[in-house]
Amino acid sequence: MNSSSNHIFSYIKKSNSKIWWPGLAEFIISNSASNKYSGKNYSTASVISGKEFEPYLTIPISAISDAKLEFLYDSHAQLFAQQKVNQVSIDRFSNPETLKRIESAFALIDVSPTLKKAIDALVKSIHVIDAEPGYDVSFTDPGLAFSIFVSVPADNKNADLRLAESIIHEAMHLQLSALEGEIILVHDEISKVYSPWKKMPRPISGIMHALYVFSSIKQWLEIIKDTPFGHEYSITRIREIREDLDLLEYGNCYDSLTDSGKFIFKKMISILKG
Question: How many whole angstroms separate alpha carbon 171 and alpha carbon 217?
């Protein structure tokens, strides 16, 4: 490890705080050599183009600094459509209800100010994508360090809570990807373990990501569970997360992990089983 990596892992080992490790995202981003398009200059369109490039349309998000909803030109959007990630129509994107729901979701995330601050640092562009009615879809690309793609529920059944969970899910993928850029967590990229989330064998790095996002979500759910608007939803989701964990043969993962990876892995399992 270099000095930056040692500093990061030392902080993680000493921290008794939440799994999103308050302040970690800001530290990694401020010390990264690969944040060319971060901050106010960042857009998904710029990263795809390799230069500063104006998206088709952006809408500022007041809930998080330097962030916006971003609508791509068709030529850029088609890159994600190949992965069945389709942006919504321009009418749906620019509908005031879409932004209102995004803002409401961030208000729910803000029950944990440290989580909200981490997401503030990590998310600069949000893309609204299509999903079948009653389903939630979300996506990140490791090559897009500050972009997330989420569907915005059109129905009213826990819609803001579901969207908040999707935002946390994808933002924590970004955080773990940033951490993986500093610290090697997995040394065996060949071995696979059955993933109860993907319903198929997955590389250990994919299992690490699943455990990380769901341990973060569980800790947020534990906070929002104590609110009148989040209690029932949280109870249900925590039960579902534990049921999925029961299907994971996580003991088969340890041999593929570095010492740093094993430390984080054990912490995540402890959170999810707790």
Answer: 11
